[in-house]
Design brief:
- By secondary structure, the protein is mainly α.
- It has one domain: Orthogonal Bundle (Peroxidase, domain 1).
- Helix content is about 75%, strand content about 0%.
- The termini are far apart.
């Protein structure tokens, strides 16, 4: 059995840009809101649509944390670059799984991503003080 909480904590630490903690906190808060309200695909589009340099750095850090999280938890495999298609693939039924198993995997994935973002928010707040 795999304990997912320490994996989420490790991923959250990767989401913080050390020279821009406040920007990281703001981007994590926004990404968490998008993920919780609109889902994984909207989350990926939100990260990919950032245009300001500061926001791009923070969104890249979030993607890096998510890539680590999904790889270590064996829930998904994201490319090293920010790609919307990688996140879309997480929401699709794989060849060897039933629709029910795919739904369970998707819900677990989303919940784990939300947990990592929450931990990222707490870590950013702690570092900012």
């Amino acid at each position: 059995m795999l304990n997912l909480e320490p994996i989420a904590v490790q991923a959250a630490a990767k989401m913080i840009v050390s020279d821009s903690v406040k920007s990281s906190e703001n981007m994590i808060n926004k990404a968490l809101m998008v993920l919780a309200e609109q889902g994984i695909c909207a989350f990926s589009l939100f990260l990919a649509s950032r245009k300001r340099q500061e926001d791009m750095v923070a969104s890249d850090a979030i993607h890096s944390g998510m890539r680590s999280l999904l790889d270590k938890s064996k829930l998904g495999d994201l490319d090293s670059r920010l790609k919307v298609d990688d996140y879309k693939r997480l929401t699709q039924v794989a060849e060897n799984e039933s629709e029910l198993v795919a739904l369970q995997r998707l819900l677990l994935t989303k919940q784990l991503m939300e947990t990592a973002l929450m931990y990222g928010r707490y870590q950013a707040k702690a570092q900012a003080e």
